[in-house]
Amino acid sequence: MVDLDYCVVGAGFAGLTAALRLKQAGHSVTLLEARDRIGGRTFTVNRDDGTWIDRGGAWIGPGQDRIDALMEEFGIPSYKQYVDGDAMMFIDGKTYRYHGTIPMSMSPFAVANLGVVFLELTRMCKSIPPEAPWTAPKAHKWDQVTWAKWLDGNTLSTPARQLLESAVSGLYTSAASELSLLFCLYQMAAAGGPSFVLGVKDAAEDARPVGGMGAIHRAVAAELGDVVQLSQPVRSIAQDAEGVTVRSEDRVVRARRAIVTVPIAIASHILYEPMLPVDRSFLHQRMPSGAVFKIAMVFDEPFWRADGLSGQSFAPGSAANLTIDSCTDTGSPGILTAITEGLEARELCKLSDADRRKAVLAAVAERFGDKALSPLDYIEHNWTVERYSGGGMIAHTPPGVLTEYGPALRRPCGRIHWAGTESSALMYGFIDGAVRSGERAAAEVVEHEAMATS
């Protein structure tokens, strides 16, 4: 049995950051990770040619101060997302080639409807306190309504409706009918407003680390050294008056407190003794993730740039909902990423590998031409079936959950504390939110321990 100050469960950015801050403060700590790799819902692979592919979370942007600070701490630079050239959108049977956030060549009625909706969403978001969205003046009313239902009463234009429904529900990798309006407003407010749901140039995330997300978490892991223990899925956490006993695949750790950073969708896979308080236990059952594929296609060069295109395209209902230029800072080779979420991702799950690849490449070729049919490399990651992620990138709450169980998101359960991007009041769902949560949890366990021993 290993006897330590603290035990952290999960080596995504939340767990890595928590363990890092605890070690830097002079505490003994171990970090148990179920996978045979670090990074959690980020996953960077390096190719033989020196380029990298981010198979999971990849982008950073304005207002994401904590991931910026972590990169500065380890000397990791960033570069801007490529946005020169036109984007493309395929809505309501029409094709739009445009520059900026939305295609202004859409009907004036659709553009006006989008403008009105964005102004209303911005106004609503301002009434949401990120630390406690369930206390917003209209929290209970908004938590009874789905995103789909709200759109029914606020979009009169079919293209505007299709665009808003797909953009927002796609972000949460689920159907619009599954999402609480309050949750959508909260997550938007946590990122600074609703404008991030469309576009790249004006989006919340407009840059990437040089070397991919792996450059950051490898640097953190190097400093942590043997603190990180891989292939150690935690089976149980038992707590008593003196501490916690954490049992993984073949290790038993005794610590004063534990920080659990695994996605909420799989937090219930751990056996807790005694059982967790009912609100936290029920929260685990009520915050699902969705379905998402992230597929990188590698070409000799980014041929779309020569064609005056940015690589960004959006086609709801397609086998490739979204495409984006994912080239490294050198711009070569050409890397185009397709991200397919929600219903379309679930449909892709039903296809054979060969048929899925064919469908995705065909969808991309419709936008960028036949060159897209023959990538040098095709790297597919189906996060939907990731055992230790529990589904898509961001957990969401269906109607009624946030107001009933939201206060349990960050509240410690005795000597068990919680981190992970879904527990962050700011930048919920982003990697920056995970870093913030790890730092908050590290400070929290130390503070609680000091209070308990004073």
Explain what this protein looks like in three dimensions.
The chain folds into three domains: 2-41 and 213-276 and 413-453, FAD/NAD(P)-binding domain; 78-101 and 200-209 and 290-388, Polyamine Oxidase, Chain A, domain 2 (Alpha-Beta Complex), CATH 3.90.660; 107-197, Guanine Nucleotide Dissociation Inhibitor, domain 1, CATH 1.10.405. Helix content is 34%, strand content 20%. The protein has 15 helices and 19 strands. It has helices at residues 13-24, 65-73, 108-125, 139-142, 147-154, 158-171, 181-190, 213-224, 264-267, 278-286, 303-306, 342-349, 353-368, 401-405, 431-453; strands at residues 2-9, 29-32, 44-46, 52-54, 78-80, 86-91, 94-98, 207-209, 228-229, 236-239, 244-247, 252-260, 271-273, 292-299, 309-314, 322-325, 334-341, 377-382, 416-418. The strands form four sheets. Strands 1, 2, 9, 10, 11, 12, 13 and 19 form an eight-stranded mixed sheet that branches. The model has no long low-confidence stretch (mean pLDDT 94).
